[in-house]
Specification:
Elements (H helix, E strand, L loop, with lengths): L5 H15 L11 E2 L2 E2 L1 E2 L10 H14 L9 H21 L7 E4 L2 H16 L5 E5 L8 H10 L2 E5 L12 H4 L4 E7 L11 H9 L5 E4 L11 H4 L3 E5 L10 E5 L1 H4 L12 E4 L4 E3 L13 H17 L1 H20 L4 E3 L9 E6 L4 H10 L2 E2 L1 E3 L4 H7 L4 E5 L6 H18 L1
Parallel strand pairs: 3-15, 5-6, 5-7, 7-8, 8-9
Antiparallel strand pairs: 1-2, 4-10, 9-10, 11-12, 13-14, 14-17, 16-17
Helix pairs in contact: 1-11, 2-10, 3-10, 4-5, 11-14, 12-14
């Protein structure tokens, strides 16, 4: 079957049609703000939740609420089954090789801190190097700075171009015999840039260097296959992919996780405890101390099922078309400059308006019912690179529409009218 086959075209049309009709699945989007229909363009900060996710969490609390793993009674066994079933869903969603490679965490930030703490204790010493990029979120900068300060290691940075892309020709020289880990974002939260992660992983692996990928902004927008990427670690948060806050996943290749010491001590990560010695549990439980966010994990599972039903490839196409439309529209607004013009972008549009502070843009847009994010987006080095204190950021999801983009542009005209 070829791309021009009518059957294929019909299938693609129906996938996009399903996405276009999904807005009613999100109850929060039905409300008005300041007497105007809500336009929610703050999806890079957190996405809204479909009713299916809300219902799944409610069912757990109404019918299954119990602690997991060690209970022998009905509710505990049922809750354990539901929670561990999510690990199986994540395995398929990411194409991981083994559920033992999937660790429940509170989110991307905790996942990166876990690797920095545990991998760092096992493998990083004075004089070693950690390589990151100039477009990282603070969560993929600060843990490595802390590790370097503790161990006497050195943090190195891949520079970025004026378009907001990595200077790929600088990478080989930065990967040295002292480099112990590369930690790189898949998609920039501040610029929308989609990085060539597979190529970066291959470059690092040629020199025997493992790679961690921050996938917080990628997983909601693109299909992620960790075996195809061949990355050593991959981290993401549920709340950016239409699931609940307070839960996420760290994927790690078993060969590394086996060698890494536990991140935290306490219940569930132990096999046996005496005052003389503690032995640790098998993977993945070695890294899962204490009672987890069980309801949140179940919500993550429901979010994955929802995304699978819509189809990630269709989501990416829909959002690409929306971003293209929004980019064309905003470039027609006098005084606007887009920050981040990479060839490959996800649904993020960061911009400044001449003579107007981003916070003032956000405030007036809110009066018009349009929710965007303003500030440095936990990416202050990016702001410094582009010589701005902050940007206004509109970030899109598949439930957004071109009509909402038009309302957003109209609200920007209001900003110019009031402050321009």
């Amino acid at each position: 079957m070829t791309a021009s086959d009518p059957t294929t075209l019909t299938e693609e049309f129906h996938k996009l049609l399903r996405i276009a009709g999904c807005r009613h699945h999100f109850p929060l989007l039905r409300q008005s703000v300041n007497g105007k229909p809500l336009v929610y363009f703050d999806n890079a900060a957190t996405s809204q939740k479909p009713q299916a996710v809300i219902d799944a969490m409610m069912r757990y609390y109404e019918a299954e609420n119990s602690n997991i793993h060690r209970g022998v009674h009905y509710l505990s066994e049922r809750a354990t089954q539901s929670y561990e079933g999510v690990r199986v869903k994540v395995k398929a969603f990411m194409n991981a090789a083994d559920t033992r490679e999937l660790i429940f965490v509170r989110g991307t930030t905790e996942a990166i801190n876990l690797v920095a703490h545990s991998f760092g204790r096992a493998f990083v010493k004075a004089g070693d190097e950690i390589l990151i990029s100039g477009m990282e979120h603070h969560s993929n900068i600060v843990p490595w700075q802390m590790l370097c300060e503790e161990r006497g290691a050195v943090l190195k940075v891949i520079p970025i171009t004026d378009t907001g892309e990595l200077q790929m020709d600088a990478v080989p020289a930065l990967l040295t015999p002292k480099t112990k880990l590369m930690a790189i974002t898949h998609v920039s939260n501040a610029l929308g840039t989609v990085n060539p992660v597979k190529e970066l992983v291959a470059m690092a692996h040629e020199k025997g260097i493992p790679v961690l990928v921050d996938g917080a902004q990628a997983v909601p927008h693109v299909r992620v296959d960790v075996q195809d990427l061949d990355c050593d670690f991959y981290a993401f948060s549920a709340h950016k992919m239409f699931g609940p806050t307070g839960v996420g996943i760290l994927y790690g290749k078993k060969k590394w996780l086996d060698q890494m010491p536990p991140y935290q001590g306490g219940g569930d990560m132990i096999r046996s405890v005496t005052f003389a010695r503690t032995t640790y549990n098998d993977l993945p439980y070695k890294f899962e101390a204490g009672t987890p966010n069980i309801g949140g994990g179940i919500g993550l599972g429901a979010a994955i099922e929802y995304l699978n039903e819509l189809n990630m490839d269709a989501i990416r196409q829909f959002e690409h078309d929306l971003l293209t439309y929004a980019t064309e529209k905003i470039l027609a607004v006098p005084g606007v400059r887009i920050i981040g013009t990479a060839k490959e972008k996800a649904g993020v549009l960061s911009f400044v308006m001449e003579g107007i502070h981003p916070h003032d843009i956000g405030t007036i847009l809110d009066v018009e019912g349009v929710a965007i994010r303003t500030g440095h987006h936990c990416a202050q080095p990016v702001m410094q690179r582009f010589g701005v204190p902050a940007t206004a950021r509109a970030s899109f999801a598949f439930y957004n529409t071109k009509e909402e983009v038009d309302a957003f542009i109209k609200a920007l005209d209001k900003v110019r009218e009031v402050l321009g």
